[in-house]
Amino acid sequence: MKLESIVSAVAGMFFGVILGWVIGSQQAGPRTSAPAAAPSTAQQQQQQTPALDEGRVQALKTIIESDPQNASAHTQLANTYFDAERWEEAIEWYEKSLTLEPNDADVSTDLGVSYYYTNRLDQALAQFDRSLAIDPEHTKTMLNKGIVLAFGRQDLRAATEEWKKVVQLAPDSPEGEAARRALAGVAAAHAGDTAATSQ
Question: Is 76 inside any structural domain?
Answer without folding.
Answer: yes
